Amino acid sequence: MFAYKSIEELVKTAQAQGKKLSTLIIEDQALEMEQSVEELFSKMDADFEVMLESVKEGQKKEQRSMSGLTGGEGFKMKDYSEKTGGGLCGNFISKAMSRALAVSGCNASMGKIVASPTAGSCGILPGCLISVYEDKKIPRKDVVMSLFTAGGFGMVIANQASISGAEGGCQAECGSASAIAAAALVELMGGTPAQSADACAIAISNQLGLVCDPVAGLVEIPCIKRNAAGVMIAFSAADMALAGIKSEIPVDECICAMHQVGQSLPSALKETALGGLASTPTALELQKKVFGK
Which of the two ends of the chain, N or C, has the fewest CB atoms closer than 10 A to its terminal CB? Predict the structure, then answer.
């Protein structure tokens, strides 16, 4: 069984055994949890169904957050994509952004989501995977299996760095989500385990230092929009890796760097709502609007 302390170990083992990362990880987890592979797959498939439903909920025109600060972003992006033929980014990416915004909006309105790896970053993984499932017609079984790749990489990040904004800033939440989504995407598009590792590393390196500064302490502003940006980073990182572009810094070293950066961030930039965007005059007025003086 793996300790999930190193992505390099996962990649080398998958290469040596001639297996996909997802197959390696689901078999390892079945052994660890004393359950069958079929049982674990069924549970992950149920999680994927929750992701699908959270997109539908978040794309409703009337969707609003509990605070009233946000709402309807998923619908607006979907409507814009349909009316403009995909806008500047094209249909595939604009619809992926809509899905990410939708899931984040669903979370803000107290809807059911999959924290993947956290509630604050919950739109990135489904935004990516549902897009290749629905728009590129990747079989559902393969998409569900790729969630095990994402999960395995996520466990390494959690063990060696952090997936908590309060501990490591938003790089630990949206950064981690983009990284594990990129790894899963590479596998779905036929890439190698090593390319999944490169994609993960590229995504992490592009979000090092991202602060956690939620306005009024709520996972809405700027969190919802960062989920859409995280989708873009995941797709670009995956495409670079699939093109044969390597990360000059190995993925495990990128994860260690993320940990070091997180440790260096002041507490005002780690989910306390005391710095960054949360301390701007407009943000403080919004806080009064929600909670009063």
Answer: C
Dist. CA 133–CA 58, nearest whole Å: 18
For 109-222, where are the alpha helices, taking DSSP H only?
124-134, 140-160, 165-168, 174-188, 193-205
Per the CB < 8 A criterion, the answer to whether 39 and 54 are in contact is no
User: 212 φ, ψ to 5°?
Assistant: -105, 105
The pLDDT tens digits for 78-132 are 999 999 999 999 999 999 999 999 999 999 999 999 999 999 999 999 999 999 9
- Rounded Cα distance between 44 and 82, Å, is 31
Handedness of CA 140, 141, 142, 146 (dihedral sign): positive
Query: Which helix (H) or strand (E) is 99 found in, with range?
Result: helix 91-108
Residue 278 is which amino acid?
A: A
Place of tokens 């559902």: 140
Where do we find the tokens 């607006």? 76
Which tokens go with 147? 């969630």
Q: How far, in Å, CA of 18 to CA of 12, rounded?
A: 10
Neighbours of 38 (CB within 10 A): 10
Q: Could you count the other beta carbons within 10 Å of the beta carbon of residue 33?
A: 11
Q: For 127-161, how does the pLDDT look when each residue is reduced to its tens digit (9 = 90+)?
A: 999 999 999 999 999 999 999 999 999 999 999 99
H or E element that contains 153? helix 140-160
